[in-house]
Amino acid sequence: MRTIMHVDMDAFFAAVEVLDHPEYAGKPLIIGGRKDSPRGVVSTASYEARKYGVHSALPISKAAFLCPDGIFIPGRMARYQEMSRQVHEIFPEFSPLVEPLSIDEAFLDMSGCEHFYSSLEEMGRSLKQRIREKTGLTASVGIAPNKFLAKLASDWRKPDGLLVLRPEDVEGFLIDLPVGKLWGVGQKSEAILHKLGLHYVRDILPHSLTWLQEKVGSALGSQIYYLARGIDERPVVPETEAQSIGHEITFSEDQDNPSFLRQQLAQMGEKVGWRLREQGLYARTVSIKVRFYDFKTITRSHTLNYSFNDDDTIFREALHLLEQIKLQPVRLLGVTVSNFSVGAQLSLFSSHNQPASQVNELMDSINRKFSPGAITKGRTLLTDD
Ligand code: TTP
Ligand code: MG
Hints:
The protein is an alpha+beta fold.
């Protein structure tokens, strides 16, 4: 039997703000925009603000209506990322098998580590305590025989919660669970299940696997059949070796000036190209990541039919991808290359690579002598075109 631990920070962005501004402690705090911000949405709210019905993804205007005395803050993504890094650095102290899930949560496979602790509860407490000591923040932890149950358990007693689910507790724990809480059941599937009269796990249990599959399709049918019984065999998948090289930048203010964004892409393209060449790699795919003012995040990729390692190709492709996106104020921008090979694989029809590579070689040798970034191309200087 496996022992899986799921950890999720409490009201993460809001908790970081309270850490940095103790005067906010105990107050309704809403992150995502100023109170009069016309288009912002809430990224998170302190537990005090949640009492007023404020939650993630709610328009700021609605939050201001529900909680007029709340403290509204636009948010500081770079700071949250820094704290996230500190939290994620702790997990490998507890297990070699860590699957980071998001900015504030991870799965740890603790199988075989049980005997280091007097009980599973003590295992959970020691992780919570370590996080608190290092960061000053509270986390909620769930421990269970699989990922599905561990994630439910960490959510159960939030904030600052700890719940251990043992096999004998599982049936009782699941029976009153709404079907929408089953992993993989989104709003659409939930509506379908409700129409069939399936509202809680206990409504699913009497039905056979084939009945469920006939009604809701084979994949969802089998998923809910097994999850309703607390069965989930998904392994904890640790982050693998770098499959991509990327750079991203969080702006202190949202940006919608195309020439500024273009210059940022050029700068990141040069950094990515430099690292690619330093590792002797060629890539075939360029991706960009754009997070908008409302934290909505999109990625776009393009794969070429030849390999490249020059800044020009990275910049040109990244810019092309950016130009296809409907621009709203941008909070974060990133460029990544992937799909590596060790040698160049030139396109038969393309002359892209050769001339640029000589410029890159020259730039790299200068940058290696001085500091990276000592020499850059003209387009990384801001222009007003
Ligand atoms: P969550 O862990 O979902 O939420 P939380 O940590 O704020 O609160 P909880 O105690 O319930 O875990 O998300 C982590 C952070 O991600 C959250 O602090 C802000 C950000 N976030 C958004 O920006 N937008 C969103 O819609 C959600 C759900 C989260
Ligand atoms: Mg959280």
